[in-house]
Amino acid sequence: MTIEVEAERLDDAREKALRKLSPRAKVPGFRPGKAPRNMVLRYFGEERVLDEALDVLVPAIYREAVEADESIDPIARPRLVIETTDPLVVKATIPVRPTVDLGDYRAVRVETEDVVVDEPRIDDALQVLRRRAAMHEPIERELGWRDIARIEVEADVDGEPMVASQEAEIQLTEERDVLFPGFEEQLLGHRKGEAFAFDLPVPGGINDEKFAGKQAHFQVSVLETKEEVLPALDDEFASQVGEGFETVDALRARIREDIEKAERDQIENRYHDQILGELVERATIEFPPVMLESEVDRLLHDQAGHIERGEDLDRYLAAIGKTEDDVRAELRPIAELRLKRSLVLSQVAETEGVEVTPDDVQAEIDTLTSSAGPQAGRLRELFSGADGRGTIRRNLLTRRTLARLVEIATQDGPSGAATAEVERPKRKSRSKRAETPSGGSTPATPQDAPAPLGAG
Predict the structure, then answer these.
(1) CB distance 177 to 205 below 8 Å
(2) What is the DSSP string of 77-96?
(3) CA-to-CA distance for 143 and 155, rounded, in angstroms?
């Protein structure tokens, strides 16, 4: 937006600035604020007076221009540039709400997956439960897989200590990743009381450059050996698992149910990702850079463990050995995808007339707190605030919009002809405090921009 200001208004702003500066003028022979106008002007100089005038005038004329143009809906502070002062011309670059053209989103079709739980998975889960209840009994035989060894170990590289002498207890497990690959294999076949040595390559996980690419020499003494004794898989064992089951068959049924639920959740998440991916591909999306940078801020905040800017951020960056610009550059593609998905989801909610009422929010709060026990009061207090209710509203809106998209993506027909039309509310004209995609209100600064609907 380019704004030209009348000369009379600039002159008036200069006079106001001069009166504001007058009490600060130290003119000999005059008390503060009593010096003649021309002497005050000479004391401060034309440039200083003009700067003071523009500091007040420019934001005011920007606000007036935006309020006069209902088609502009700012979401953050503008970038204001004074192009000339005679006449006064101001160029404002204004971040406005994003635009999303969904295209033929009702033509999206995504195949569903079936939940399949085979018996070996249930057997594996039962084995995990048995191992949690296992006894460890001393042995005199040679060590084998799944046995437990208490050892004393030390290591050096070319005579320089790398691992100080220490005791450790480990269970020899084939499928586990270890810092030194092959270490556990070296223990196999040894007995309690034996001492032996072996060499292994220093892995890339060791950051000390003086050890890189060399061989580590280990010395190990076996202090104690035990074997894992699993409980019998019978009804007595089943009765001791969790809340207790009458039979092994009942335990197996519960395990199957839990695995099926986890599988359904994963399939649903993948399905939602596929649908949103298709929608983003079809849509035409435009958004101001400030929204992307705000999303990068959120990702950086989450990745660094909810840090604050300043010293905490500096410590985090030092720990990972990267600059803030490096991390932001890595996060930007992820942030852009999240933002696009969020904007598409918000537009679908509006287009399909998906709504969440205050009663819906209250019902969700009641559901969430009903099983919270002693914490119910605290949770209800937390959820009942404006932020808590806003978060619940956004979550409900996201779930309902995704459910609507699943209906569309799983129906028959080429482009949604088989689906009954949802009555859509008439689009209202947007006000200066129009609701953002997340359900918050227009942010005053980029840093205040709320997380969009379904950003996660």
Answers:
(1) no
(2) PPEEEEEEETTEEEEEE--B
(3) 21
- Both tokens of 46, joined, read 């034309």
CB 339 within 8 A of CB 347: no
Of the candidates 57, 118, 114, 119, the one whose C-alpha atom is nearest the C-alpha of residue 89 is: 57
Q: Mind listing the pLDDT tens digit for each residue in 358-374?
A: 999 999 999 888 888 88
Q: Report residue 190: phi and psi, to 5°.
A: -95, 160
Query: Got the DSSP string for 101-133?
Result: E--SGGG-----------HHHHHHHHHHHHHHT
Token pair 């591909």: residue: 281
Beta strands 160-171 and 195-201 are unpaired
pLDDT score, position 226: 97
CATH fold label, 2-96: Alpha-Beta Plaits (3.30.70)
How is domain 135-229 classified at the CATH fold level? Chitinase A; domain 3 (3.10.50)
Find tokens 């914490």 and name the residue.
Answer: 375
Measure the N-to-C terminal CA separation of the chain; round to a whole number of Å: 34
Q: Which residues face 229 on adjacent strands?
A: 135
Q: Which residues of the chain have pLDDT under 70?
A: 306-311, 412-456
Report helix, strand or coil for 171.
Answer: strand
Specify whether the CB–CB gap between 79 and 93 falls below 8 A. Answer: yes
